[in-house]
Specification:
Length: 172
């Protein structure tokens, strides 16, 4: 199946000069969605990624991370933007192109030594994925790999990431 044909390009979003890769067209296609989740699972398995948990980054990482966790027999844990989680949290602030942002995870979600995969829909500059990896390192987790549906190769985001397996399904 040609996944690229199910991903819509939207020019000048969210600002002029940006070509947005929209996955909503992939998500609405039942066969395409099933194929994507099955292929994602297979590629992570083939890369030797065995984990206790799959971490999904807000928000599209939730869409792909939860079924990946289910297929791998792992738990799913959301990493959220600041202020979205109740209770005690671990957090990390990270730099954006203009300013900073913050990611959070519940303190009781992970224990030191937990083996984790970080999943998201897309890797661009790698900033959010790198910050999530740093947050997990701070907790004492073992990062076993990253999984992304789409990689924007020209932005070289994977260069920011730790040296673990990285799975992608579609490259632009």
């Amino acid at each position: 199946m040609d996944l690229k044909s199910l991903i819509r390009d939207i020019p000048d979003f969210p600002k002029p000069g940006i070509l947005f890769r929209d996955i909503t067209t992939l998500l609405r296609d039942a066969q395409g969605l099933r194929y994507t989740i099955d292929l994602f699972t297979q590629k992570c398995t083939d890369a030797g990624m065995t984990a206790d948990f799959v971490i999904g980054m807000e928000s599209r990482g939730f869409i792909f991370g939860a079924p990946l966790a289910y297929n791998l027999g792992a738990g799913f844990i959301p990493v959220r933007k600041k202020g979205k989680l109740p209770g005690s949290i671990h957090s990390i602030e990270y730099a954006l192109e203009y300013g900073t942002d913050c990611l959070e995870v519940h303190q009781d979600a992970l224990q030191p030594g937990s083996r984790v995969i970080i999943a998201d829909d897309l890797i661009a500059t790698g900033g959010t994925a790198c910050a999530t990896a740093e947050l997990l390192n701070k907790i004492g987790c073992e990062l076993v790999g990253f999984g992304f549906i789409i990689e924007l190769q020209e932005l070289q985001g994977r260069k920011k990431l730790p040296d673990v397996p990285i799975v992608t399904l579609v490259e632009y």
